[in-house]
Amino acid sequence: MAFDDFLEDAKLGIETTGRDNSCETPNVLAYEPTTYTVLDRIITQGNITADDHIVDYGSGKGRVCIFLSDRIGCRSTGIELVKKFHEKACANLAAYRKNAKKEVDIDFINVKAQDYDLPDTADVLFFFNPFSYKTFRVVIRKVLESYERVQRHIRIFIYYPQDSFIALLSGISEVMFYDEIDCGDLFSEEDDRNRVMIFGIG
Fold it and tell me: CA 200, CA 202: separation in Å to the nearest integer?
């Protein structure tokens, strides 16, 4: 089922639509939110539960965290480097909380991804091309350090995967490929990268 992103934003009381490349650098990619249609497919596959703690790297204006928390009731944390996107995410969260019918456990943190220490409760990580391979490599190292501190089942979701990201994960003995969610049928144009690859640790 296809979702209208503007309508879904309105239902949640937030504003996250549109692409913004005003802060793009070689290490920070343009802001482009994951469509609600793709997020819904991830949910319907049953890959995330209310007991999970999700960390969205490159969380932008907060769509992933707010939507997943609203639909599933899970804890979520958004990591965003760009201050203006972080501030918008915080404003969106405040607006969402005004009409939320339940308690929500959502945090947005303005920090470099490579400086963020993954909490030992986090078990679902989401990436939609938020930054360069160089940054991704550091982030994955910190993920492995968190796993060594507290061993648990960690799932890594990568939407619209870059070959370099996949090659890195495939070369780490602790990381296993679990599943792939095909999203190609959700869009009119053919693109073999319209998929979510799921890797796991532990």
Answer: 7
pLDDT for position 191: 64
Q: What pTM, to 2 d.p., does this model score?
A: 0.93
pLDDT at position 25 is 78
Distance, first Cα to last Cα, the chain: 33
* Cα 166 from Cα 93, distance rounded (Å): 32
* Other C-beta atoms lying within 10 Å of the C-beta of residue 36: 24
* Cα distance between residue 50 and residue 177, in whole Å: 23
Per-residue pLDDT averaged across 93-104, rounded? 90
How would you classify the pairing of strands 175-182 and 53-57?
unpaired
Please give the domain boundaries of the chain with CATH numbers for all domains.
5-201 (3.40.50.150)
In whole angstroms, give the CA distance from residue 77 to residue 68: 11
